[in-house]
Design brief:
CATH class: Alpha Beta
Low-confidence stretches: none
Number of helices: 10
Order of helices and strands: EHHHEEEEHEHEHEHHHHEE
Structural class: alpha/beta
Radius of gyration: 17 Å
Strand content: 15-25%
Shape: globular
Number of domains: 1
Largest sheet: 8 strands, mixed
Distance between the termini: 11 Å
Bound molecules: 3,4-dihydroxybenzoic acid, fe (iii) ion
Mean pLDDT: 97
Oligomer: single chain
CATH superfamily: LigB-like
């Protein structure tokens, strides 16, 4: 049977992708950001997942204001990196896993979570930057990736609890897939940041660290953080953190935190990263 062995939480700051693509990772500004992912890349190589299930948000790239699905599951055979204004990032095409994705769609929708099924979708920095920080710059991504795009762009995004419960439904789906696959789930976005209006530039390290602590130790409490608290404490774009609860909901109640990295600043945000291993895997 398939199983989820671990969860990865990480930021998706677009400038991190630019730093890699332009060979700037050894610059003074970027070195400490990438230092914190060295262990993660080793861990990832050891883990050697068969599939990555990647929860992220689209930034008005695949979807514009005419259509904003709350949860959109990528069931296609491949997902091309989108042109976000400067040409597509020079990263490999993302290969999907249509068979597992269709199984997840069936299981999760019959479990009463009404996903949107995407048979064609371009992917932006929300998905490609986490792959870059975890896998570096391979010719091809080392395994298929199933994207799940979550609306955090237009109010109202889903609640943390809804995301957490969806994670549990995704776990039930993967646990019932016949093939023996090692799946690693990513929850991406965040951490605290605000890109607009009077509080642009806001970073709240105390909140971010507490969020990471809760994720490991008391995920149910973490999943109850309200939209208002995210807005007040983590800034308007800090709401991206709700996506980490999908990842956490898909893991065991008790997990082992094998790695954490936190660094300020990277562009307008704090970079946050955590790796949690399931005990049951
Ligand atoms: C930045 C962060 C994001 O999450 C994003 O989607 C765009 C920009 C930033 O920090 O610059
Ligand atoms: Fe973002």
């Amino acid at each position: 049977m398939a199983r989820i062995s671990a969860g990865v939480g990480c930021s998706h700051v677009p400038a991190i992708g630019v730093a890699v693509d332009q060979g700037l990772t050894e610059d003074d500004y970027w070195r400490p950001v990438f230092k914190g992912f060295e262990k993660s890349r080793e861990w990832m190589a050891e883990q050697n997942p068969d599939v990555v299930f990647l929860v992220y948000n689209d930034h008005c790239t695949a979807f514009d204001a005419s259509c904003i699905p709350t949860f959109a599951l990528g069931c296609a055979a491949e997902f091309h990196p989108a042109d976000e204004g400067w040409g597509p990032r020079p990263v490999p095409v993302v290969k999907g896993h249509p068979e597992l994705a269709s199984h997840i769609a069936q299981s999760v929708i019959l479990d009463e979570f009404d996903l949107t099924i995407m048979n064609e979708m371009e992917v932006d920095h929300g998905l490609t930057v986490p792959l870059t920080v975890m896998f570096d710059q391979p010719e091809e991504w080392p395994c298929p990736v199933i994207p799940l795009a979550v609306n955090v762009v237009q109010y109202p995004p889903p609640t943390g609890n809804r995301c957490f419960q969806l994670g549990k439904a995704i776990r039930r789906a993967i646990d019932t897939y016949q093939e023996d696959l090692n799946v690693v789930i990513f929850g991406t976005g965040g951490m605290s940041h605000q890109l607009q209006a009077e509080r642009a530039g806001l970073i709240n390290s105390d909140f971010d660290k507490q969020f990471l602590d809760l994720l490991t130790e008391d995920p149910v409490k973490g999943s109850k953080i309200t939209h208002l608290e995210y807005l007040r404490e983590a800034g308007s774009e800090g709401i991206e953190l709700v996506m980490w609860h999908v990842m956490r909901g898909a893991l065991d109640e008790k997990v082992t935190e094998v790695h954490r990295h936190y660094h300020v600043p990277a562009s307008n945000t704090a970079v946050g990263h955590i790796i949690l291993e399931n005990h049951s895997a």
